[in-house]
UniProtKB/TrEMBL annotation:
Organism encoding this protein: Pontibacter locisalis
Protein name, per record: L-histidine N(Alpha)-methyltransferase
Domain Histidine-specific methyltransferase SAM-dependent stretches: 27-333
Coiled-coil stretches noted in the UniProt entry, renumbered to this chain: none
InterPro entries documented for this protein: EgtD, EgtD_Methyltrsf_superfamily, MeTrfase_dom, MeTrfase_EgtD-like, SAM-dependent_MTases_sf
Gene Ontology terms: biological process: methylation
GO molecular function per UniProt: L-histidine N(alpha)-methyltransferase activity
EC id: 2.1.1.44
Length: 336
């Protein structure tokens, strides 16, 4: 019987700021770059300030937003099988990319401790505050689990882990976050991740699967308007943090799903011709009436697409865990 690692290691900080924005410099640069393009866009990672995170918590509780419930079902119903795949070769580091509050991951952690598996837990997030809170909650709930939180961007964290943790690794990338990348970017992301992993390491990745287009569309354009508020909060954040002068009431949220491409896209639409000054960029940006700002993609997959995506980067599918409707999957890859 293997002993649990009960050491609480100090938190590693690879990022200077809690929200990953490098104070406001990177935020201002990304906003200026995005709004300068012929087809305007803003990076979706800036959705998640304090207010944005609160709104997203509300979105996850909406009846239309099936994704979180579906993955909870996958993890709950398959936790024993998942843990057996993780733990059968002895000690490993379980690395949770974008851990947040780790509510879903705790399902697996509890099962690992129940089976007395030999592992430690390495949550990774750009929010230092979230990692402090998670470390505290794990100390209180499961003090026997070894935890070392890492604050920083994913690849900085994986590089640090590669240099400092030689043992086997199981990486979690849950929540269908891979769908936020364009297809070329998703290949680049997975190939970069693979470069930090060794032979026999594993990746458990959440993917949202193709389904009724109306079901998908409603999840990103709910009747209560919470998703619209979430998207519009990005303009409020620019006003608050960068000295922007957006009249937010003159923009509206618009969502569309393309079933041919399998891509859900979100936009903010200017309701009139207007100019917006943003102090920290030192620039004024012009919007035509009905001009769109692209804010987010969410790709939906066929399993064969996921298999091909992994193969391009040296991963092969070990097994696939589905929810009861086969509309969401956590795909377990192993390195080739």
């Amino acid at each position: 019987m293997m002993e649990l690692n009960s050491t609480l290691a100090p938190m590693i900080e690879l990022s200077r700021t809690e929200d990953g924005s490098n104070k406001n410099g990177a935020f201002a640069k990304d906003v200026a770059d995005g709004l300068s393009q012929k087809q305007k866009h803003l990076p979706s990672r800036y959705f998640y300030d304090g207010k944005g995170s609160q709104l997203f918590q509300q979105i996850m509780d909406l009846p239309e937003y099936y994704l979180t419930r579906a993955e909870f079902e996958v993890l709950t119903d398959n936790q024993e099988a998942m843990v057996q795949h993780f733990a059968h070769e002895g000690f490993f580091h379980m690395i949770d990319l974008g851990a947040g509050d780790a509510l879903k991951t705790k399902i697996l952690i509890r099962q690992l401790t129940k089976q007395q598996s030999s592992f430690d837990y390495v949550p990774v997030d750009i929010s230092g505050d979230a990692m402090k809170q998670l470390t505290k909650s794990l100390q209180e709930e499961m003090p026997e689990v070894g935890v070392q939180a890492v604050v920083g961007e994913y690849f900085k964290a994986l590089q640090w882990l590669q240099q400092n943790k030689s043992e086997r690794k199981v990486v979690l990338f849950l929540g269908s976050n891979i769908g936020n990348f364009e297809m070329k970017e998703s290949v680049e992301f997975l190939c970069s991740m693979r470069s930090y992993l060794g032979a026999g390491d594993k990746l458990l990745m959440g993917v949202d699967l193709r389904k009724d287009p109306d079901t998908i569309l409603n999840a990103y354009d709910d009747a209560a308007g919470i998703t619209a508020e979430f998207n519009l909060n990005l303009l409020h954040r620019i006003n608050r943090e960068l000295g922007g002068e957006f009249d937010v009431d003159q923009f509206q949220h618009y969502a569309m799903y393309n079933p041919l491409e399998g891509v859900m896209r979100s936009f903010l639409i200017s309701l009139k011709e207007q100019d917006v000054y943003i102090r920290d960029t030192g620039r004024t940006f012009h919007f035509d009436a009905w001009e769109a700002i692209h804010t987010e993609n969410s790709h939906k997959y066929f399993i064969e697409q996921v298999k091909e995506l992994g193969q391009q980067c040296g991963f092969k599918i070990e097994t696939v865990f589905y929810d009861s409707r086969r509309g969401f999957a956590d795909v377990l890859f192993t390195t080739e």
